Amino acid sequence: MDTQGRKHVDPADQWVFDPETGSYQLRLEPEESPARAVPTQGSRRRAEESPASSRRAGGHGRGSGGGSGGRGGAPASRRKPKPRKSRKQKALLWTAGSVGFVLVAVSVGGYLVYQHINGNISTVDTGDIGSDSATSDGPVNILVIGTDSREGLGNTYGDAGSVGHADTTILFHVSADRSNATALSIPRDIITDIPDCPTKQKDGSTKIIPGTDNVRFNTSLGQDGRDPGCTMRTVKALTGIIPDHFMMANFNAVKDLSTAIGGVEVCLAKDINDPKSHLKLSKGRHVVEGDQALAFVRTRHSVGLGGDLSRIELQQQFLSSMIRKMKSGGTLTNPGKLWKLADVATKALTVDTGIGDVKKLSSLATDLSRVNTKNITFATVPVIDNPAEKVHATVVLDPTRAPTLFNMVKQDVSLTEVKKKQKAADASKLKGTMADPAYVRVEVYNGSGIFGAAQDTVDWLQNTKGDPRSTNGGNASADIAKTTLEYAPNQADQARRLADWMGLPASALKEGTKNAKELANMTLTLGKDFAAAGTPITAPTKAPAGIQKVVANDKSVCAK
Questions:
Q1: pLDDT tens-place string over residues 468-485
Q2: CA–CA separation, 488 and 467 (whole Å)
Q3: Contact between 303 and 272 (Cβ < 8 Å)
Q4: CA 49, CA 41: separation in Å to the nearest integer?
Q5: Which residues of 320-334 are buried (b: 16+ CB within 10 A; e: fewer)?
Q6: Whole-angstrom distance between the N-terminal and C-terminal Cα of the chain?
Q7: Distance, CA of 211 to CA of 132 (rounded, Å)
Q8: For residue 107, which of 99, 95, 117 has the smallest C-alpha distance?
Q9: Which residues pair with 124 in a beta bridge?
Q10: Using an 8 Å Cβ cutoff, are 300 and 307 in contact?
Q11: pLDDT band at 49 (very low <50, low <70, confident <90, very high)
Q12: What does residue 53 show for φ and ψ, rounded to 5 degrees?
């Protein structure tokens, strides 16, 4: 009840949609009293005029001597008296004004929130590598970079003022159908070649930073002024996978994000007291945030073998737990938590210009959130000790397992085997006898875009498979997406042998209609699905044996 003893009606419930006008109007009485509903604009005008009409009927009009020429009365005003507003009309004005104020406040507030969040975002123009679109109908590759920059952090973590290198790097691949994702951790101490890198300067010009060969991967960022675009180019050269976007975070990001979501649960299989990272935790499960969370992901001397590969496993456990917390802890459905997380995340992250505003970041996050945590797999790029060193301080790619893993990612094959990505080969095309290796005649053309791919394949066929009759045809007339093998009907046994060697899918086999002359060559054209000589064109459905991996929804993982 209000102060006048009337039944209270929520102003928000008084707005009703008028199908005749296509707009909302205020209803001053309960809906069950249609006779007392708000009048239309025309009837309201007539209602406002009715007091004057009644006055004329009551003898106050010109015919009763009350006009300007009448006797015994004061001259009447030419202006009609302003009608007094009823209580209902006052309520109407008050309610409309209040609702209008609220709408304006919300609009301004929303704009200010948008401007605030948008103003938090730092961006880097990576030039011709990456995508201008936040989302895609196909797979998406995001390079997540954790820099060890100490800029603005003082002496808290040592190396004060260090510009930072690519201390932690994860290539996050999301499948085209968003059913699964693979996160590949790239060791910082892997030896690789860093290509020339064009970088945007503050004055708008572009500076080419020369590449270097046989150096640590982490120097792809920070060294000689290299920016995250240089790291993206290095990943492309190392893996053959092109990142669409990057997200870079520093020490503060780990501290602030872990705090914003209320902590991250981690597990230790033993007590840890690491004076270098300042992590001191007992065996068992703990919820860490802030400085303690940062200490956890930086620790390496007290776990595993005490190196970067052991630390990677800690980071994968931490990120898996963080993903679980965000997806299941109500973080993304709680406005307060979501605002805090958005504010912290946008302050903590630097991204490429392709996702450099709130709308694009929001679209990307919404798109990627469709992946179930049980189908997100963290894996470490397979490596072996650097054979060039007596004391093994660095590593190099495992020449057997790494190309296979990269090929799986490029061909969108899930490590969790959500479903088979490769169509079964057409048995009718692959059945039959296979030619002796010494009689397989093939000319290899390079349409892969990989320098030297044709010659590498010829060398592999001759030296590994015993095929002395393979030859290098040079570059194809144009790069092609898929590898093809063209052959005549009387060369089918040779085609089967070559398809078996190279792991060619049935779709790659193109049989002609006429028999070939004796001693004629088949034509093998390598496409962009070619990874390396000896690596099957058709990606395997299972990851190589022995690679380190963990699924994001596995809560049983504990650091040893």
A1: 999 999 999 999 999 999
A2: 19
A3: yes
A4: 13
A5: bbbbbbbbeeebeee
A6: 66
A7: 25
A8: 99
A9: 352
A10: yes
A11: very low
A12: -65, -40
**Type of residue numbered 189:** D
Strand partners of residue 178: none
Nearest to 319 by CA among 303, 341, 286, 296: 296
Q: Can you tell me the distance from the alpha carbon of 157 to that of 155, in angstroms, rounded to the nearest whole number?
A: 6
φ, ψ of residue 32 to 5 degrees: the values are -75, 0
- Reported as type and span, the H/E element at residue 97 is helix 87-120
Token pair 């300042």 is found at: 278
411-425 pLDDT per residue, tens: 888 887 654 444 444
The two tokens of residue 405 are 């893993």
Residue 541, helix vs strand vs coil: coil
Mean pLDDT of the chain: 79
Which pLDDT belongs to residue 472? Answer: 97
CA dist 437 and 433 (Å) reads 12
pLDDT at 116 over 80: no
H-type helices in 465-560, by residue range?
Answer: 492-502
Give the type of residue at 365. A
Burial of 411 (0-12, 13-18, 19+ CB in 10 A): middle
Residue 11 class from Cβ within 10 Å (0-12 exposed, 13-18 middle, 19+ buried)?
A: middle
